């Protein structure tokens, strides 16, 4: 008989124990004693239920008694390719269908749907194994423009992409926890809750708008003063300091993470979309968007420009770790993705000893013209653009031109000459940079195919899609490791309705951080 339930690794037992009291409260949807069934065939004896829950309680207490040693972590078995595979946890054998008869109907579901349900009910995200990149780290950093790694998506590259996306999430969280910028705070690095403890923050980065709002705005809304401040914390520089992680990655990695648009003045800069020369000494007329360049180059009243800060810090780190294999990875989302390209351009020429520079951008808009793209290529900057096919932000600013059509035209003599001539003449002749990894909202079994613009541009939605991406001609990865609780919590209106052929719904009424969910059978909607 098939078994269904949420398998908890041994190291997650403490989390389960801390939350089980909440599961037994009167309002918990996981408490079968509070569920009223409309069919007699689905009723369950109260005494039988109590007995099963009591047995489960005893089992958990047995492994968490204060006088007993902590439960040993899940043991691993070596695989032939050097990876490790976790053995089943102690709850693997629990037959949840015996506790709740309505779950017996789930035994008729396909293994694919059972897997999805188990993942929905998972307590925490499982991470893919960190394989040793060794001498191949350059390939994952873009030395060959990720040739042969994108379609199908290499497992190691998938993990690296998601990992760098989480560095951006840390930048968002840090900013929103304290959006104001004071003179005192700008003198020291902020505390950032990094997703990888192998790294430490060495520098806070600020972006400054060249425009401002009228003074009366602050008088009308004094509590929202940070919305009108010209200089705002935009990200950080972090460096890997853990020897084991350095050995695994094959080098010491320097990360520059940049958040997306968050203040009114940043939005105002975003719409200043005329192309302007990136420098006065540029012979090929490499041009970038006026607003992006303004945020990058403008100095604040108490902080240097983003360009100055990042160059000074990179030079310092290069000198400090001189003689070691180094890499610089710049990662950003939305506005941060645009600024990441400007940062990459600046640091690629800041020192004759600059290590390999790669950009991992999520939902990035166009930044400059074709000459700017050629400039980055000539400076050996490698760019991997993660693009959601449904994200309109990746097709602005400039004209809505198909990237595929543009590429085909440039491959012809006549079309290439014409487009090259237009690049330097038209004020909105934008072009993307680098290699593209395309994902699609419609491939997710959990997101609605007509999800709104905000969802299609959301960073967590991007990481969800990358985690489930196998190849352009394959369905969503059934064994995707990333937890869904954050995606559902933030994009609830864009999550598909779930149902079964027997009209038993898995309600998504309440999915807060404790992952309280109704335990009914479900199948994903085909639309």
Automatic annotation (TrEMBL):
Broad class of where this protein is predominantly found: plastid
Top EC class, one word: hydrolase
Subcellular location, record wording: Plastid, Chloroplast
An MF annotation (GO) of this entry: galactolipase activity
Compositional bias segments (type: Basic and acidic residues): 72-86
Pfam families assigned to the protein according to its UniProt record, in alphabetical order: Lipase_3
Domain named Fungal lipase-type: residues: 255-399
Keyword Transit peptide carried by entry: yes
One cellular-component annotation, GO: chloroplast
Superkingdom of the source species: Eukaryota
Record region (Disordered): 24-88
EC number(s) stated in the UniProt entry for this protein: 3.1.1.32
Family according to the record: Belongs to the AB hydrolase superfamily. Lipase family.
Protein name: Putative lipase
UniProt organism field: Handroanthus impetiginosus
